[in-house]
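User: Fold this one for me? It's Helix-turn-helix transcriptional regulator.
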Amino acid sequence: MNVEAVAKQLEALGNATRLQVYRTLVRAGQNGLPVSRIQEKVGVPASTLSHHLHRLIVTGLVTQERQGTTLISRANYPAIQGLLGFLADECCADVDAESDGSAA
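Assistant: Here's what I get for Helix-turn-helix transcriptional regulator.
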């Protein structure tokens, strides 16, 4: 992942309502939820939810699929795994380099 994409995803999740929407979808699992059900669970107006879902979709954190007249939203698990990996993969990578220089 590149730093720009990570920054946009973190910015999207930095909004309390979007984070609540995203957590609701993560809890729902692979089946996702109809938009109307997300609205019930989060308790925001439809237009507000639409705005927040759009932002999560644009950043790749959420996908949507139409099933008949119902719009199903799902957390994009590979995207969040990539984001978490980006944040954690280099954990402590510079510790040995710094300790080598300070041991003198």
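One thing worth pointing out: The first strand starts at residue 33 and ends at 34.
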